[in-house]
Amino acid sequence: MKPIKAKIVGGEIRPYAISYFRRCLQKMEGKEMVLSLRKPETQRSNDANSYYWFLLKEISNYTGEHQNKLHELFKQMFLSREIIVWGLPVTDKTSTSKLSVKAFYEYCEQIMAFMAEDGFILPSKDDWENM
Q1: How many domains does the chain have?
Q2: Taking the CB of residue 59, how many other CB atoms lie within 10 A of it?
Q3: In whole angstroms, what separates CA 31 from the centre of its chain?
Q4: Chain centre to alpha carbon of residue 104
Q5: One domain, residues 54 and 78
Q6: Are residues 20 and 50 located together in one domain of the fold?
Q7: What is the pLDDT of residue 44?
Q8: 82 in Cβ contact with 72 (< 8 Å)
Q9: Are 36 and 72 part of one and the same domain?
Q10: Are residues 22 and 81 in the same domain?
Q11: What is the domain extent for residue 87?
Q12: One digit per residue, pLDDT tens: the chain, 131 residues?
């Protein structure tokens, strides 16, 4: 079952997708379940996205590679894993748009560390904001 987003109002759970929520409850009728609540992870802001593409532009200027190719390269390097489907290895790449804010900045830091190994130092997000 996929996570269900809801809002707590007056001590009650109010699911946004009420029809889906009710169907899930019907399927679980009579079963003992554990309910877990957590705050949703927020997706990155336009500001964070601008910073990421700024990094790619800087790396593109340094390497001569196109930004989109670098985007695919770094996803392959840092956001992919091999899974087995019908006994065959398949590369599963996480989309950067699906990363939480924390995971997205960790991804940017991995790219920065990788480039630093080559002697190319990129500005931190704080430094970028003050440029």
Answers
A1: 2
A2: 23
A3: 33
A4: 6
A5: yes
A6: no
A7: 66
A8: no
A9: no
A10: no
A11: 46-129
A12: 677 888 889 988 888 888 888 888 898 899 998 888 877 766 567 788 899 999 999 999 999 999 999 999 999 999 998 889 999 988 888 888 888 888 899 999 999 999 999 999 999 888 888 87
pLDDT in tens, 97-131: 888 888 899 999 999 999 999 999 999 888 888 87
Q: Tell me whether residue 121 is exposed, middle or buried, using C-beta atoms within 10 angstroms of its C-beta: 0 to 12, 13 to 18, 19 or more.
A: exposed
> Does one domain contain both 76 and 112?
yes
Q: Do 94 and 120 have their domain in common?
A: yes
Q: Same domain for 68 and 114?
A: yes
Residues 67 and 29 reside in one and the same domain: no
Instruction: Tell me the DSSP string of 82-108.
Output: EEEETTEEEEEE--GGGSBHHHHHHHH
Its pTM stands at 0.65
Tell me how far apart the alpha carbons of residues 14 and 4 are, in angstroms, rounded to a whole number. Answer: 10
Q: Alpha helix (H) ranges present in the chain?
A: 18-27, 46-63, 67-78, 101-117, 125-129
Helix, strand, or coil here: 128?
A: helix
Residue type, 113: A
Q: How far is CA 98 from CA 52, 72, 76, 121, in A?
A: 14, 15, 15, 27
